[in-house]
Each structure stands twice: as C-alpha cells, then as structure tokens.
C-alpha cells in the first residue's frame, strides 16, 4: 500500500537510515571497474559474502579485462561454480569482457546506455557498477532487499524492478539515488528480514504501513 505522501515518507526514511547506516555501501570487494562488474554479475542469486570468497583467487587468475576475454568457458565455470548459475554467469562475464575490449577500448563504459549493451547487464547491475566504480548515478539499484522494503514502506506498489526504480527516482533526490539502495539493503539484512521482520525494534516502525500488520500477526 502507498502512504499518503510518498515523497515525504522517502525523505524521512533517508533521514533516519542515514544515521543508522552512515557508511552504507556495497559489500562486494573490488579494485577496478571491471572487477566491480564481474563481482556484481556473480552476486545474482548469491550472497556478497560468498562472492567475496570467490573473487580474490578469481581476480588473481584473471588479472584484467583481456584475461577474462580470453578465458576458457569451461574453466571459468569451474572457477565460479560455487556462486550458482555458473554457466550463464561465465558466458556473461566472458561476453562482457570481449565487448569492453572490442567496443570500449578495454574500459568499462561510464553511462547507462552503453552499460546495458553488455551481456549480463541490466539496470540493477549497471547502477551498481556506475555508482561504486565511478561515483555516477543514472538510477537506483533495485535488488531483492530494495524491492521488499520499497513495498513494505509504502514507496511503491509495483513488483517489476524497473517500475519500482521509476517510482523511487520520482520520490528521492538525485543526490541520494546512489546511497538509498544501500540504506535499504543494510536495513533489510539487519532488521527488515524477508520472513521475520523485527518490527518492534525498527527505527521506522512508526511510519511503516506494514509494521502494524507484522506486529499484530505476531
């Protein structure tokens, strides 16, 4: 359900969560823009903790875009197997590397339109890479946590990530687009759990339209 004044709601959420999570940022480890891209592709349907276990050896074995472009598909699949969906991820990583080398001179593009031409890259991945690798924002990354909390907090009634992103972009100042995802991600991990949200201890429970329902059910 949408709240009466979604824009006011969004600003209040930012005000409160920015205090609790002042250093909210990606948990993925990377040193270059392409490493950020690889890590983000790998993180789909997995956890950042798992990906951070994989990437040190992976980035040592494939030191740079060209190394990934030249990688053996079968070998890369084995290298990333524990991330899940490793066949498609390996295809996308190699495809993205080859595209970056052949079309962008070996440098990850710095805009949404070009990012979206890379294999395995949708708006969420593009937003994550642009924000974390370059400090650029062209949208708001919507992952499972952002999708869940945007609905619970009354900021969007949509279920499609692209539509949720559009709703959030209309409510949130552009200066906060990059940070907002991480406020919700950190809060989703710490308090607003998918199955058992800890509403009584939540700093947003007095403005969250879902809190009463969860507390009442409990």
TrEMBL record:
Transmembrane segments: none annotated. [4Fe-4S] cluster binds at residues 192, 199, 202, 208. GO terms for molecular function: 4 iron, 4 sulfur cluster binding; class I DNA-(apurinic or apyrimidinic site) endonuclease activity; DNA binding; DNA N-glycosylase activity; metal ion binding. The keyword Iron applies. Pfam families: EndIII_4Fe-2S, HHH, HhH-GPD. InterPro entries: DNA_glycosylase (IPR011257), Endonuclease-III-like_CS2 (IPR004036), Endonuclease3_FeS-loop_motif (IPR003651), Endouclease-III_FeS-bd_BS (IPR004035), HhH-GPD_domain (IPR003265), HhH_base_excis_C (IPR023170), HhH_motif (IPR000445), Nth (IPR005759). Its cofactor is [4Fe-4S] cluster. DNA repair enzyme that has both DNA N-glycosylase activity and AP-lyase activity. The DNA N-glycosylase activity releases various damaged pyrimidines from DNA by cleaving the N-glycosidic bond, leaving an AP (apurinic/apyrimidinic) site. The AP-lyase activity cleaves the phosphodiester bond 3' to the AP site by a beta-elimination, leaving a 3'-terminal unsaturated sugar and a product with a terminal 5'-phosphate. This is Endonuclease III. The gene is nth.
């Amino acid at each position: 359900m949408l709240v009466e004044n979604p824009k006011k709601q969004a600003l209040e959420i930012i005000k409160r969560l920015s205090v609790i999570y002042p250093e909210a940022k990606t948990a993925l480890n990377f040193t270059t823009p392409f490493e950020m891209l690889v890590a983000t592709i790998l993180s789909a349907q997995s956890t950042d903790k798992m990906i951070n276990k994989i990437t040190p050896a992976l980035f040592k074995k494939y030191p740079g875009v060209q190394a990934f472009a030249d990688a053996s598909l079968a070998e890369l699949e084995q290298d990333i197997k524990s991330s899940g969906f490793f066949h498609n991820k390996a295809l996308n990583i190699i495809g993205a590397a080859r595209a970056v080398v052949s079309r962008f001179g070996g440098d990850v593009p710095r805009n949404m339109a070009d990012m979206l031409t890379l294999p395995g890259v949708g708006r969420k991945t593009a937003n994550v890479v642009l924000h974390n690798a370059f400090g650029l924002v062209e949208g708001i990354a919507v992952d499972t946590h952002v999708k869940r909390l945007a609905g619970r907090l009354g900021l969007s009634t949509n279920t499609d990530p692209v539509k949720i992103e559009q709703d959030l972009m209309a409510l949130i100042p552009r200066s906060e687009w990059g940070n907002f995802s991480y406020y919700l991600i950190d809060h989703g991990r710490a308090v607003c759990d998918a199955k058992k949200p800890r509403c009584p201890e939540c700093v947003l429970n007095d403005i969250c339209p879902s809190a009463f329902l969860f507390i009442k059910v409990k």
